[in-house]
Write a structure and sequence with these properties.
Helices cover 75% and strands 0% of the residues. By secondary structure, the protein is mostly helical.
Length: 145
């Protein structure tokens, strides 16, 4: 019981910190991280993903919360936001951005949120896993001045 309580406290502390750094509320941070984890689950080998879930307190609950979130299938706004973010992030950002947009995150919030998630994971995971994740999580590209 004490271990579960400690895990819940660690997860909530992380979520609150991620929300504050990203300019979003705690519920958006929890569901957003769940969406990122769900995305990684689909993209990483099972062994690598198990290291990710071991490093993130409450990962299963966060992924479940993200899938329970109501999706906005209003193609117009979501497509516009996805397109705009795709240009900022480059690569195959569309799938990740779509998931986060459906959770109600704006372009600016996604631009702040994803680098914060990546920074958290870098502190918790071995370098080989971080390298795999870094190639999957889109981050804003520096604009040429």
């Amino acid at each position: 019981m004490v271990v579960l309580q400690e895990t819940n406290t660690m997860a909530q502390d992380f979520i609150n910190d991620l929300a504050e750094r990203s300019g979003i509320n705690a519920d958006q941070a929890k569901k957003g991280l769940g969406a990122v984890l769900g995305f990684l689950q689909d993209k990483l080998p099972a062994e690598s993903f198990s290291k990710v879930t071991s490093a993130v307190p409450g990962a299963d609950r966060m992924m479940a919360a993200a899938t329970e979130a109501p999706g906005e299938e209003s193609g117009g706004i979501v497509s516009t936001v996805t397109g705009a973010i795709g240009k900022l992030f480059g690569g195959g950002a569309g799938e990740m951005v779509s998931k986060l947009s459906n959770l109600g995150l704006s372009v600016d919030q996604v631009k702040s949120f994803l680098p914060n998630v990546l920074a958290f994971l870098k502190d918790k995971l071995p370098a080989d896993i971080v390298n795999k994740i870094s190639g999957l999580i889109p981050t804003p590209q520096e604009s040429a001045a």
